[in-house]
Amino acid sequence: KRPRESQADAGRAAKRSRDTELVAGHYNARPEVGLKKRVESPIIGLKSFNNWIKSVLIAKFAVPAMRQHEPPLPQGRNANGGNAGRPPRVPMAGKVLDMGCGKGGDLQKWSKANTKEYIGVDIADMSVRQAHDRWQTMRGGSRFDAEFAALDCYNYSLTTKLHHRLGTPFDVVSMQFCMHYAFESIGKVRMMLENVSKYLRPGGIFIGTVPNADLLLGRLRSLAPDAEPLEFGNSVYNIRFDSRDESAVYGQRYWFYLQDAVEDVPEYVVHWPAFEELARQYGLHRVYKEEFQEIYRQENGHPEYGPLLEKMRVVDAEGASSMDNDQWEAANIYIGFAFQKR
Ligand code: SAM
């Protein structure tokens, strides 16, 4: 039976902030353009790089967490059912929650990771519909069990729409380029963390990507004393702070523009030490946090992730980057992280 919406939930809905409306409206208004148009984007190099970073995080942290659930193979048999001539096929395993899944840009990545069950949730209902369509048109062999729901995950519990999927816990929760929208208030961050942690199994992994507060605040502090507006950026991105006041841990707002992706949307600084402290209260312990450029430096020679750079068109056959300097600078606004539930 579906639980009725509580009074607290209803109160939160009434209080849904203007910024939340702006964020949901913005992402709903950006249509899915299809593969052909996607590769024509002026920042295709940066988009490919971001996809490579997400693939690395999935391979490094999510896949091992999902593999722990594989049943051991009987002695002398491989996963093809004993056909010793063929390389073993990895069986599907693992349950993933993609919070802020958007238009399903990571569905192929989760398919390649042999995910068995995938739940995608996002506040933007149009995006959720597009993600669902994308899943339906994925090639049959690689399609996993999936469900999609439109939900404001920073104001509502997952049980509101997905209680029937929460009987078995998740092995992985992923939040890509979306967690920072929760940092408008501590209440939202708490709801978000409850949704991440409550249905994640002990030993399970929480991965994500957010803007780097140290970098943003460093740039803000280095603006000239009379700078107005309080902005910095280049031809690819622009960040404009409301004020220089850094006293608020939650609700420190700036406006973000990214060419061909984000049109001046309100975002919030993720003050990292406070976030780590709060996450610990939900049993989530950090195991990884790295700037994107550093992830590239550490992983570009890796036997599995290195060759992916060319396959995902981050570099060409000669190894030349498909990003110009402005895109490379924009790429390093972000950090990748992983937490483990203990
Ligand atoms: N994760 C996807 C990806 O990497 O391609 C989409 C990233 S997009 C930059 C940010 C997403 O966060 C948008 O789809 C937006 O609708 C979603 N989002 C923002 N606030 C949310 C909320 N309160 N609950 C759920 N999703 C939210």
From TrEMBL:
Q: Any idea where the MRNA cap 0 methyltransferase domain is? A: 41-342
Listed name of the protein: mRNA cap guanine-N(7) methyltransferase
Origin: domain of life: Eukaryota
Q: Tell me the function of this protein.
A: Responsible for methylating the 5'-cap structure of mRNAs.
Species assigned in the record: Botryobasidium botryosum (strain FD-172 SS1)
